[in-house]
Amino acid sequence: MDEKTAETLAIAAGLEKAWANHRADVLDALATLAAHKANLPRATNAAVEPVPAYSLAPRR
Amino acid sequence: MSAHSLSLAEASRRIAAKTLSPSELLDDCLARIAEVEPRLNACIRLMEDGARAAARALDNEAPRGPLHGIPIGVKDIIDIAGLPSTCHSAQRLDHMATADAAVITRLRAAGAVFPAKLATHEFAIGGPAFDLPFPPARNPWNRDHHPGGSSSGSGAAVAARMLPGALGTDTGGSVRHPASHCGLVGLKPTYNLVPREGVFPLAFSLDHVGPLTRTVEDCALMLGVMAGGDFAGGLTKGLKGLRIGYVRHFHEIDQPADPEMAAALDEAARVMVAEGAIITDISLPPLQQFAAVNRTILYGEAGAIHEHWLKNSPENYAGVTRRRLLPSQFVSAADHVQAQRRRGEMVAAVQEAFTQVDLLLTASSMDPACRIDDTPMVERTYPRQARTPFNVTGHPAVTIMNGLHSTGLPLSLQLVAPAFEEALLLQAAAGYERAAPWKDMAPNP
User: Fold this and answer.
1) Cis bond leading into B205, ω under 30°?
2) Do A17 and B205 touch (CB under 8 A)?
3) Interchain pair A50, B343: CB under 8 A
4) Please, are residues B216 and B430 in contact by the beta-carbon 8 Å criterion?
């Protein structure tokens, strides 16, 4: 990702201070997230519902 | 044997028999802390006076139960009334807890005393770091090595015989990682079995509170108080007849393990068969998918928790914490929902496995502890583990010692059970612990 795009994203996220003082960390964060997005499985059925925050069998 | 070296269960038996008093046990633990803490940095804060006063009061009481007079260390993201909960962070140096966390209330009522708040990775995610108000905890087996985290001080303190037990928290493996690297028993209970009120969150739907101890019996005794119930009654039943699914692909294909770690897992499976267990191979979704789902959900939840600080005082985090938390400000709502969709399928996959077997056997860490100052190797530690899947699904999982690597550092394994089957999980862990010779091995920090 080029720096101009990264800056736009950082400012849109309200991270002006981090962008000004910790630019390398912001760039690292964007690269990290891109890697995770690539590994995140996506539902092929658009109607699949997400689970609530947690669901397991009831306590026995 | 010095009192500080006793297992929690043995100290408890001696207190019940009036051959050891809570004050004597505490004094010996405090002396041990004074001896080894300068080399290990396990403690953020000592509460000697308060703990001594509590122990003196307990000296004259009839035993309340197995934790009567037992010193327990507390990870410094868990509130104790009247004390700071710093989360090992400059962001929280002035935070003062006004009430005990729910788990502290339960432990205190059972007679536990609290001599120390313990080091953690900053906010249970950013560490080990050398640019924080407190230094990082060290591994008692080799002080140049990583103790695991984020419950790093809990692992170091219990392994070094400073304390017989400690509280940790586990969002992606943070109780089981120090257990793996420090040769301990570390339990992540079923989601919400142990209350989280008063524990600073990392990710609400992934966070768990769990004990770190030196033996499975000690773990069962702590869990009995933390969760309510009897988890120790079946520990002698052993492994005979238990069907155990061996998830080999985690450490053979998904994240190939250190050869000695892999060989030790195979040997553990052989020992379990010799003890009467029935081992079959079983498959789950790949570790990389579990990790991506865990991380995406964590970003969504931690992003809300840390948004204010990331925007307004990012300089108050350690660099590693800032780098680990900043992605949370860019994750999309759609990705969060996609992760929650896949999470449901992952819960179903693990539930399906438990229609075929009673328990799962997996790796915990893929490698022994790396050097604490080797940043690339420390970073490599976090994906090279098989703990995250059970934060995503919420099933109970315990890491126990599984021998020593040729470097002299502990090896480990993980057992996993159906939801709320901690008694069965600890029964199997105790059966393996008895059959293997690791329980009495101790570091010399």
Assistant:
1) no
2) no
3) yes
4) yes
Q: Is B174 among the residues known to form the active site?
A: yes
Question: Which pTM value belongs to this model?
Answer: 0.97
| Contact yes or no for B319 and A29 at CB 8 A | no
Contact state of B329 with A54 under an 8 Å Cβ cutoff: no
Where along chain B do its domains lie? 3-287+336-435
Q: Region of B51 please: left (phi>0), alpha (psi -120 to 50) or beta.
A: alpha
Name the residue among A26, A27, A28 with its Cα closest to residue A15: A26
Q: Is there a contact between B243 and B433 (Cβ–Cβ < 8 Å)?
A: no
**B154 carries an active-site annotation:** no
Domains of chain A by residue range: 3-39
Residues of B in contact with A29 (CB under 8 A): 323, 326-327, 329-330
For residues B241 and B256, the answer to whether their CB atoms sit within 8 Å is no
| Each residue's pLDDT tens digit, B318-346 | 999 999 999 999 999 999 999 999 999 99
Report CA B385 to chain centroid distance, whole Å.
14
How distant, in Å, are the alpha carbons of A31, B124, B293, B330, B414 from that of B323? 11, 14, 19, 12, 29
**B300, B301, B293, B307: which is closest to B331 by C-alpha?**
B300
Q: Which fold has domain B3-287+336-435?
A: Amidase signature (AS) enzymes (3.90.1300)
Q: Which of A 1-60 lie inside 8 A of B, CB atoms? A: 9, 13-15, 17-18, 21-22, 25-26, 28-30, 32-33, 36-37, 39-43, 48-51, 53-57, 59-60
Q: pLDDT tens across B177-231, in order?
A: 999 999 999 999 999 999 999 999 999 999 999 999 999 999 999 999 999 999 9
Chain B residue with Cα closest to A26: B326
Q: Catalogue the E-assigned strands of B122-275.
A: 165-170, 185-188, 208-213, 243-246
ipTM over 0.85 threshold: yes
If you measure CA to CA, which chain B residue comes closest to A57?
A: B419
